[in-house]
């Protein structure tokens, strides 16, 4: 799934109105784009638009969300923070798997001056492992609090390692190339004051699933 196809964000988020002025406070939803992770939505600050205690029954909401509940990416309670980022490329080498074919076929002996550089098998293997670790672009996951108007409230959001360039020479950076869509419940209100009606509606939230070193 491409990023541009996955960004169907916050479907059917209607305009919320200020009780006093009746002027639009929020726009319908963010425009689809290639920018991930998703930026924070601007919420109406009035707590009247928050779900009440009786609207947060865990059993009822789990039944409503059904098979869309994914415990690997969702949490009702605040989880322990997990941040795998590191400025040391060799730290990220663990669990990379086998070297890509393009690295295995890389000719390390050729120089810009047409001469050949001799390199032993052990030295070549270590250098390729270092190069693979340096240019590898993992998805780094952290838990994000979406606020009380989402259920489950917490999502494990993906980010691309972007603390430094991932290429030789420098100039390329890790960027998202794929995403997966998770379905959450969104507390949705329309109207205002005593005429207000609120309910839980399903919305889709894209999560980065793959990063790549690119321009």
Description:
With 215 residues, this protein is α+β, with helices and mostly antiparallel strands. It has 2 domains: 3-84 and 139-214, Cystine Knot Cytokines, subunit B (Ribbon), CATH 2.10.90; 86-108 and 117-137, no CATH class. 14% of the residues lie in helices and 25% in strands. The longest helix has 15 residues, at 121-135. 16% of the residues are buried. The model is unreliable at 1-33 and 84-93 (pLDDT under 50).
Layout of strands and helices, then pairs:
Layout: H1 3-6, H2 58-65, E1 74-75, H3 101-104, H4 121-135, E2 139-145, E3 150-151, E4 154-160, E5 173-190, E6 197-214
Structural class: alpha+beta
- Structural domains: how many: 2
Distance between the termini: 20 Å
Biggest pleated sheet: 3 strands, antiparallel
Report the strand count: 6
What letter string, H or E per element, gives the SSE order? HHEHHEEEEE
> For the CA atoms, what is the radius of gyration?
23 Å
**CATH topology grouping of the largest domain:** Cystine Knot Cytokines, subunit B
Primary descriptors:
elongated; Cystine Knot Cytokines, subunit B; 2 domains; 3-stranded antiparallel sheet; 6 strands; alpha+beta; single chain; 215 residues; 14% helix; disordered N terminus
Characterize this entry briefly.
With 215 residues, the protein is of the alpha+beta class.
